[in-house]
Amino acid sequence: MSAAGHYENFPVASLLLPPRLRTAVLDIYRYARAADDIADEGDASDQERLAALARFGAGLDWIEKGAHAQPAPPDELADIFVPLAATVARHRLPLAPFRRLLSAFAQDVAVKRYADFSALRDYCHRSADPVGELMLHLYEAATPRNLAWSDAICTGLQLTNFWQDVAVDRDKLRVYIPQEDLARHGVTEADIAAGNCSPAWRALMAFEVARARALLHSGAPLARALPGRIGWELRLVVQGGLRILERIETGGYDVFRARPVLKKTEWLKLAWRALRMPQARPPSPPHHDA
C-alpha cells in the first residue's frame, strides 16, 4: 500500500542516527513493516489479514502487561515482540503510537476511499504521525510543540507519498485522493484508471501538492529546534519530501507514466537546502480532531 512508502523515511540505516538508538529504531521499524505487510502483501483474505493484525494487538497487550511476567508470544511473533518489549522498557516508550499504527493497517484492509480530507487526515494521524512521535520519545524531545510540528511533517510526507504513488494505488484499487476533491475538480476514478492527465487532473494535483507542501513547511521548524544528528536527519527528510513535490510539478503532474523519485545526484542540492532552512518559529500545523 502507499502507506508503506512512509517507512522509507525511517532512518534505520542512516549514518546520522546515533549508534545508541539504532537497535531501538530497528525494533520499531520491524514492527511497523511487518504489520504493514500483513495488511497489504500476499494473497490472504481480508479475514486472515485482520486476524493476523489482531495477533499483533495481542503482542502489544503482552508488552503492556509485563513481558517478563508472562510466557513468550508464539514463535512467529517472538522475533518482533521480544526485542520490541526490551526497547519499549529501555526507552520508556508509550504503546499508544504502536496501537494507532495497527488501527491504520486494519483500516487499510477494508477502507479504499476517503470522503474528505478530514477522514484522510485522521488516517494519516494513525498511519504516519506515530512514527515521528516514537522518534521524539527516543530522543526525549516529545514536547507538545515538537509533537505538533512532527505531526505536520509526517502527514505531509504521507500525502507526498500518496500523490507520488497514485498509479501504484490505482492498481491496488485504492484511491487516497479525497472524493470531495475529485468531485470539486471534475476528475473521475475512470480518469485515474485511464491515466488521464487532463487539465482538470493537473489542477487537482496542484491543489494536493500545495496542501502537502504547506504541511511540510509548517512542521519544518522542528528540524532546527532539535539538536545534532536528529535535526540534520529531519532537515534532509523534509527537503526530500519537498523535492518529490517539485518533481511532481515539473513532470506536469503526470504520475501515471513516471513515478517521481529522487535521483542520487540531487542529494547535494538537498543538503544545501537543508543547511539554509529557517530557524524555528511558533508552529501552526492544520488542526485535526483525531
Automatic annotation (TrEMBL):
Record-level GO BP terms: terpenoid biosynthetic process
Under InterPro entries, the record lists: HSQ_synthase_HpnC (IPR017827), Isoprenoid_synthase_dom_sf (IPR008949), Squ/phyt_synthse (IPR002060), Trans_IPPS_bact-type (IPR044843), Trans_IPPS_HH (IPR033904)
Q: Which domain of life is it from?
A: Bacteria
Range of residues in the leader sequence? none
Q: Name one Pfam family in it.
A: SQS_PSY
In its UniProt record, a GO molecular function of this protein is: geranylgeranyl diphosphate synthase activity
Instruction: Show the stretches that span the lipid bilayer.
Output: none
Alphabetized CDD domains for the sequence? Trans_IPPS_HH
PANTHER family in the cross-refs: BIFUNCTIONAL LYCOPENE CYCLASE/PHYTOENE SYNTHASE (PTHR31480)
| Protein name per its UniProtKB record | Squalene synthase HpnC
